[in-house]
From TrEMBL:
Name assigned to this protein: Phosphohistidine phosphatase
UniProt organism field: Pseudorhizobium pelagicum
Pfam family, one: His_Phos_1
SMART domains, per database record: PGAM
Domain of life: Bacteria
Coiled-coil portions: none
InterPro entries given in the database record: His_Pase_superF_clade-1 (IPR013078), His_PPase_superfam (IPR029033)
Amino acid sequence: MTSSFPSRIYLLRHAKSGWAQPGERDFDRPLDGEGFAEAELVAEKAADRGYRPERVISSTAVRCRQTAEAVRRAIDEDLELAFVDDLYNAPVDVYLELLSSNGSAGSLMLIGHNPTIEEAMERLIGADEAAGAIPMGYPTAGLAVLDRPGEPTGPHWRLVDFLTA
């Protein structure tokens, strides 16, 4: 099976979540009030700039699901969301494999967790460019927009935009 990446990738870190309550699993932590606002704002900014992924794949963690729903509301109510358990606590290779196995989509958004979302960006555009774009680390509700290089032999993807709430 041949793998190929989409021509545009959106890497979205989930918005700000609250701390786990006693007895609550990390997986079940929802967005807090600030996180709901962040998710809505970054999704609206993306829609205003015409960023419309053909496919959205999100971690099944509650905070990622809630972030994905904000994207759907802002961009397209009919946008199909796919939820993948493997994105929760996954190494970067899992994120990259999901990207490369979805090349049939012209554009793909991954909604996931740090530090893996930041590591995926670094692997795709290079550590120096990633550090220049996000010197303080990948913020909650941060959205990287990456385009595939014109030359198949080019070293890195190109960072087109980075949105924050």
